[in-house]
């Protein structure tokens, strides 16, 4: 079972990582000034992750494949890691689709 992990960056922005059941990070958010915005980003991932049209498949300058997940308004709500192949990237998308809807939310900022 996947989980969203909320953390706080050095610059005090909040971010979330969606982790697969094996602990691997499969999606990372942008930085958010407010934790409530970060939580809304998680809800957006849960909804938008189920629509193929929300995934933008890209190739980085180093030639590695990756994808971004966009909200209905076109804003990027998460970015994947870099993958060695298109097949691996497609597996990453499948993992987001299967993990995001039911992933628990773990707020690690509460431990501070």
Descriptive overview:
- The protein is of the alpha+beta class and 112 residues long.
- The protein is 25% helix and 31% strand.
- The chain has 2 helices and 7 strands; from the N terminus they run βββαβββαβ.
- The chain has helices spanning 35-48, 86-99; strands at residues 3-8, 14-19, 25-28, 55-59, 65-70, 76-79, 104-107.
- The chain has a 4-stranded mixed sheet with strand order 3-2-1-7, with helices on one face. Strands 4-5-6 form a 3-stranded antiparallel sheet, with helices on one face.
- The longest helix is centred in the middle third of the chain and has 14 residues, at 35-48.
- 27% of the residues are buried.
- The model has no long low-confidence stretch (mean pLDDT 96).
Q: Give the N-to-C terminal Cα separation.
A: 25 Å
- Number of DSSP-assigned strands: 7
In terms of structural class, how would the helical and strand content be classed?
Answer: alpha+beta
- The chain-level mean pLDDT equals 96
Helix content: 25-40%
Secondary-structure element series: EEEHEEEHE
Radius of gyration from CA coordinates: 13 Å
- Widest sheet: strand ordering: 3-2-1-7
Report the portion of residues in β strands: 25-35%
The largest sheet, given as strand count, sense and whether it forms a barrel, is: 4 strands, mixed
Number of helices in the DSSP assignment: 2
């Amino acid at each position: 079972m996947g989980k969203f992990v909320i953390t706080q960056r050095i610059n005090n922005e909040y971010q979330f990582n969606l982790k697969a059941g094996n602990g691997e990070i499969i999606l990372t958010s942008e930085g958010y000034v407010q934790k409530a915005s970060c939580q809304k980003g998680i809800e957006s991932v849960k909804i938008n992750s189920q629509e193929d049209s929300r995934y933008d498949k890209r190739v980085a300058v180093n030639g590695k494949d990756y994808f971004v997940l966009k909200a209905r308004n076109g804003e990027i709500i998460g970015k994947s890691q870099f993958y060695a192949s298109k097949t691996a990237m497609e597996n990453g998308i499948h993992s987001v689709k299967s993990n995001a809807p039911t992933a628990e939310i773990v707020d690690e900022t509460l431990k501070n």
